[in-house]
Amino acid sequence: RLRVLSGIQPTAGSFHLGNYLGAVRQWVALQESHDAFYMVVDLHAITVPQDPKELRANTRLAAAQLLAAGLDPERCTLFVQSHVPEHAQLAWVMNCLAGFGEASRMTQFKDKSAKQGADRATVGLFTYPILQVADILLYQANEVPVGEDQRQHVELTRDLAERFNGRFGDTFKIPKPYILKETAKIYDLQDPSIKMSKSASTPKGLINLLDEPKTTAKKVKSAVTDTDTVIKYDAENKPGVSNLLTIYSTLTGKTIAELETEYEGKMYGALKTDLAEVMVEFVTPFRDRTQEYLDDPETLDSVLAKGAEKARAVAAETLATAYERVGFLPAK
Ligand code: AQP
Question: How close is the Cα of 136 to the center of ligand 1, in Å?
């Protein structure tokens, strides 16, 4: 079995539709065919200021949402990043291998630090991609299921793994990004030229899965389309409608072509009303299931404890090999 590894931040509380369609949905599918490791990346979360109480609550909330989305602890390893100290330990080694220039070229860092003001961005935000490199390499992952915005970080992982292997001998698997073309980038409902994101989207453009279903329906119905009237997929000229068709198609399993036929001659309003209904049908049980997991924190914590134990067994072995290759004197 090939191995996959991926993570999600516990920062915003609710997952948004981009997180789900771009990443989490694939995680659920891949646990059937792959040896799957998924984590809530709380170490990444503190690259921007977090309230400690909220961070703890949001970490449980993220795990609850992953289970609600369909991750099954019998089929995958689900854990919290900070429960496995090897992440931070390997990250240091990788920090010492990465060039300052190559880290400076990470577009996500450039965007996020520009937003915060370069002087206010933390060093942690700068080295965040290197921590991600360590996350992936520790598990010898073959594939990394993520959205398009993470492609550059997986490329960096490949570069650093090759550099390490070249310098110290074959140690790490070279991972590949696993990015589904159709859902690689879900766009903001109000501004379909930008990705749906918790930091860049306005509340109306962002579908939070834990919002009141009524609010979600309203957001879908007021999604920006275009002045044309034809319902067809054309990402370049009709980005708003194309985004809605992608979402509709993924949530229902109908192909885009089927939807185009179904909506031939119909108005945008009809598409939005139907999609609003599809969305409500999706988020309502998702919210309920999330709440059920939250209502039983002991079970949730025990799932995470077992996950951490399984993850640590793999991570510790890789770290020990990496330390040995680097030349650290083994502790007796
Ligand atoms: N719009 C999106 N379309 C497709 N995939 C997306 N992902 C995020 N947005 C989209 C994917 O979700 C996974 C988890 O990402 P994250 O941990 O970075 O989650 P986030 O911080 O909630 O994502 P945001 O909203 O993108 O955060 P900001 O605004 O801070 O940048 C990843 O696999 C990601 O690709």
Answer: 17
Q: What is the pLDDT of residues 276-303, one digit of tens each?
A: 999 999 999 999 999 999 999 999 999 9
- Give the active site residues: 112, 195, 198
Model pTM score: 0.96
Which H or E run contains 89? helix 86-95
At 277, is the secondary structure helix, strand, or coil?
helix
**In whole angstroms, what is the distance from residue 68 CA to residue 22 CA?**
16
Q: Which residues pair with 143 in a beta bridge?
A: 4, 176
Ligand 1 atom, smallest distance to 15 CA: 22
Ligand 1 near 9 CB (within 6 A):
yes
307 Cα–ligand 1 center, Å: 23
Range 139-157 average pLDDT: 97
Query: Residue 193 contacts by C-beta under 8 Å, 6 or more apart in sequence?
Result: 187, 239
For ligand 1, whether the C-beta of 200 sits within 6 Å is yes
Q: Which residues have a Cβ under 8 Å from the Cβ of 64 and sit 6 or more positions away?
A: 290, 291, 293, 294, 300
- pLDDT confidence bin for 116, thresholds 50/70/90: confident
| Integer-rounded Cα radius of gyration of the chain | 21
Judge whether 106 is annotated as a binding position.
no
Nearest residue (by CA) to ligand 1, atom 15, is: 8
- CA 168 to ligand 1 center in whole angstroms: 34
Q: How far is CA 268 from the centre of its chain?
A: 30
Is the Cβ atom of 195 under 6 angstroms away from ligand 1? yes
ipTM of the complex: 0.96
Closest CA to 146 of 132, 164, 160, 159: 132
- Close Cβ partners of 241 (under 8 Å, ≥ 6 residues apart): 225, 226, 231, 232, 233, 234, 268, 271
Substitution candidate for ligand 1 out of 136, 149, 189 with most atoms within 8 A of CB: 149
How many CB atoms sit inside 10 A of residue 32's CB?
A: 10
